Amino acid sequence: MASDGDWRAEITALEHEANQAFLDHNVDRLEQLFSDDLVVNSPINRVNDKQKVLELLRNRVIGHVSCRLQPELIRRDGNLIVVMGSDVVQNTPAEPTLLRRVTNVWRNEEQGWRLYIRHATIVGEMPSPPQR
What we know:
- There is one protein chain.
- The protein is an alpha+beta fold.
- The chain is 27% helix and 46% strand.
- It contains 3 helices and 6 strands; from the N terminus they run H-H-E-E-H-E-E-E-E.
- The longest helix is centred in the first third of the chain and has 20 residues, at 4-23.
- The termini are far apart.
């Protein structure tokens, strides 16, 4: 069994890899990182499964130009790891930067750790920088 630091480091790396794949619209990599049983309670007020999330991303219905992760808790319970915290996202350069509360649940599957459940809720807009 991996030490505490090993699984934490692996999940932290996977969180960043999944975030970058989402930013890059890398559907092939997300296909690998997402569990076939993935469900997402999304900030567009819908619950989507893996195939729907990938379809929306492929068709550029969803996506971000920037996303900064801020995990506050990473906890393991057997074959599940829960990551809770916030992220700061911008969907397009013309849109405001949003603060969201997020929860990701990773499950240890035959292929390794895969994102199993995600919940993201918009809690507000970030203040714009002052104009010069």
